[in-house]
Amino acid sequence: MKIQLMVLALLLSSGIRPIDAGKEILLWPGVAPGSEGKTAAPENVRIAEGGDHVITHVNNPSITPYLPEPGKATGVAVIIAPGGGHSELWIDHEGYNPAQYFQEHGIAAFVLKYRLAREKGSTYTVDGEELADMQRAIRLVRSRAKEWGIDTARIGVMGFSAGGELAGLAAMRFDAGKAGDAIDGQNSRPNFQALIYPGNSKRLEVAPNAPPLFIVGGFKDRPDISEGVAQVYLKYKEAGVSAELHIYSAVGHGFGMRPTNTGAVTGWPQRFTEWLAEIGYLK
């Protein structure tokens, strides 16, 4: 047992993902549009206090798949965008950890590594390259749905903090795709959206044919988020679009899915899967 724990600790400290994660898949086979001349620059990974891996300098956007065992697969898929203020990606507690949880519960999860608009010196924008990365990820997953045992009508997005803004924008701005391309020809509309303490929530509006909304916040978060999540919910309520809101009284920002979380907030992933069942996506 001691040896197994030592091996696990070494894997985590080295930045290696759990062995049940699939191989990272680039969103574009060559250079991503807008990243010309930048792809040779290496990504940077630092270890934050508490052990989280924090990524910067993303020029080759990608998804990392967490596919459930065929006997557990439900056909549902979710693309997860970690947060970090659009300047970095906190990819463990807002990416790999929830992805592994959903994988274990029969939901295919894909952790999105997107380009960063507010990193020092960045030429990317939230509404340009970041949103394009999320839209491309939706199209890519939809294009390989049969291979991965996914129902093309049950592919959604989830985002944390800045990633929540990105997921919310993807649920506002989508199209049917461009004919003649196996990936870009796919519809970019997510079938559901889960926004976990989303940043810049005043931007989020209800688009025509908007997908159902699951939204989570902390009472102790800063006002634009702790109050903003309720305001987004009310927009959906007024528009008659299915929405569910959870505000946890004892937490602030950035709780994500951490081993150190305690209390009611630890149950938000289960609330999410229950919500998927109630809207008819989990059988």
Q: Would you spell out the secondary-structure blueprint of this structure?
A:
Elements (H helix, E strand, L loop, with lengths): L1 H13 L10 E2 L17 E4 L5 E4 L5 E5 L10 E5 L7 E2 L1 H13 L3 E6 L12 H18 L1 H4 L6 E6 L1 H9 L22 E4 L16 E6 L4 H4 L1 H12 L3 E6 L19 H11 L5
Short description:
This protein is an alpha/beta fold and 283 residues long. It contains 8 helices and 11 strands. Strand 2 (44-47) and strand 3 (53-56) form a beta hairpin.
Structural write-up:
Strands 1-4-7-5-8-9-10-11 form an eight-stranded mixed β-sheet, with helices on both faces. It contains eight helices and eleven strands. The protein has a single domain (2-278), classed as Rossmann fold, CATH 3.40.50.1820. Strand 8, helix 5 and strand 9 (193-196) form a beta-alpha-beta unit. The model is unreliable at 1-19 (pLDDT under 50). With 283 residues, it is an alpha/beta fold. The relative contact order is 0.12.
Please give a handful of descriptors for the protein shown.
alpha/beta, Rossmann fold, eight-stranded mixed beta sheet, 8 helices, disordered N terminus
- Can you give the helix content as a percent range? 25-40%
Biggest sheet architecture: 8 strands, mixed
- The fraction of residues in strands falls at 15-25%
Number of strands: 11
Query: Roughly how many Å is the radius of gyration?
Result: 18 Å
Task: Give the CATH topology.
Answer: Rossmann fold
Shape: globular
H-E string: HEEEEEEHEHHEHEEHHEH
